[in-house]
Amino acid sequence: MVLTHDVILPEESELTVPEVNLSASTLMAASVHLGKYCEHANNEFMLCRFEENDPRKCINEGKAVTACTMEFFRKVKKACLQEFNQYANCVDKSSGDFSFQYCRKTQGVLDQCMLEKLNIERPSFGYFTEARVHDSKRPKPLPESKPHYPDPTPALPEDAEKKPPRFGSRFYWMTE
């Protein structure tokens, strides 16, 4: 994005939100349930990003995603902290690439706790790849008008003399 004097950047106070300071293994352990819990906010943010093509117009949607994530982790901390810590620790220490395959037992315990205490069911395999229609309350942006450039060279007049080609037509096979 090229910046000129016409570009208005948001103030730093608009951009400042509390960050989610968690490790990669913690985010990986929570990813499925977090994605399900904050699905509407995430879809709204991504729709805004694709429609607007300008991240400055989607600041509020991004703040909503961060707020939803913070709310999710507060609820998990209150209801299923021990189960979640066991699962995140297993994901962190069982492999070098945060693989889930060695942590299925602790995953089952966490899934049961999330279902019983927070009523968040683990989505089925492939849930996030299914096509869904997102209902947004935000108005659809107007399409950008394409610039019209006048033709720099005028066409030949209709009564102009048209000489036959000097070396014949390149479409010689099409002649009768």
TrEMBL record:
Q: Which UniProt keywords apply?
A: Disulfide bond, Electron transport, Membrane, Mitochondrion, Mitochondrion inner membrane, Repeat, Respiratory chain, Transport
Question: Mainly localized where?
Answer: mitochondrion
Query: From the UniProt record, which GO molecular function terms apply?
Result: structural constituent of ribosome
Family annotation (PROSITE patterns): CHCH, RIBOSOMAL_S2_1
Localization, per the record, is: Mitochondrion inner membrane
Q: Does the keyword Membrane apply?
A: yes
Entry similarity comment: Belongs to the complex I NDUFA8 subunit family.
Q: What is this protein called?
A: NADH dehydrogenase [ubiquinone] 1 alpha subcomplex subunit 8
Question: Where does the secretion signal sit in this chain?
Answer: none
Q: Which domain of life is it from?
A: Eukaryota
Question: Where is the region Disordered?
Answer: 136-176
Give the InterPro entries listed for this entry. NDUFA8, Ribosomal_uS2_CS
Skewed-composition ranges (Basic and acidic residues): 136-149
Q: Say if the entry is tagged with keyword Ligase.
A: no
- Tell me, which GO biological process terms does this entry list? mitochondrial electron transport, NADH to ubiquinone; translation
Gene Ontology cellular component list:
mitochondrial inner membrane; ribosome
Task of the protein: Accessory subunit of the mitochondrial membrane respiratory chain NADH dehydrogenase (Complex I), that is believed not to be involved in catalysis. Complex I functions in the transfer of electrons from NADH to the respiratory chain. The immediate electron acceptor for the enzyme is believed to be ubiquinone.
